[in-house]
Amino acid sequence: MTVVTTHRLGEPCWVDYTSSDVPRATEFYTALFGWTAETAGEEYGGYVTFRRDGRRVAGLGPRMGDAQANTWLTHLLVEDADAAEKAALDNGAQVIAPTMTVGDQGRLAVIADPGGAVVGLWEPEQHRGYELVAAVGGLAWHELYARNYAVQVDFYTRVFGWRTQVLGDTADFRYVTFGDPDAPAGGVYDANGMLPEGVPSHWVVYFGVADAAAASQRVIDLGGTVIRDPWDSEFGRFAQVTDPLGGLFFLHEVGTGGGA
């Protein structure tokens, strides 16, 4: 288990899920990952915080207006949300939700990068982000499926100060990781040739499980769908799944502890 108390600026610090059916989504994720759910008051719109072994892991909120439902959203840590929003806008992004204050928790903006991928910007106050990584029931990886790979990598490097490392640079596999080379936070994949027509660039999240095959079966038992059966790669063992509402995420076998 890796417990996180601080996050690096410009890198993922939180994930949450926008749902058309909060009770059903809550039931699914708590059953799958052994999470507990805490519901905030009306001043926070009934926002749900998930914990694993007492450690904050992820959030869940209801669909607001015409916002896209049933998707996971990655948030990047910023020192000043207003300044980060402006810098993103100046470098080709679009603002989806202007910077707002979220009680005493922090300040939030949501943007679409120049390739169309939606990502949050989080300036923390009381809420410092997720606290469990590379563990069963914790965040395991963040990945951007990029349709405009070079432009998007350049955008995050310019605006958020990413340090990138090339893993592959061929037509079949073009990929960089970002963050500390010894402990990267995530990666960017050139997905233009892989994504179906009409599917834009987007961020995806990976959650740790002890056994990818067992967790995949559990997803099915709970009403979800396995999009891609567990497979092995040089980077680990993974599966691609959706929850009962269609929300997409990945399972990453970390092989320690109990649970899913």
UniProtKB/TrEMBL annotation:
It holds the Pfam family Glyoxalase. Residues 11-124, 138-254 form the VOC domain. PROSITE patterns: VOC. It comes from the Bacteria. PANTHER family: CONSERVED PROTEIN, GLYOXALASE-RELATED. This is VOC domain-containing protein. It comes from Leifsonia soli.
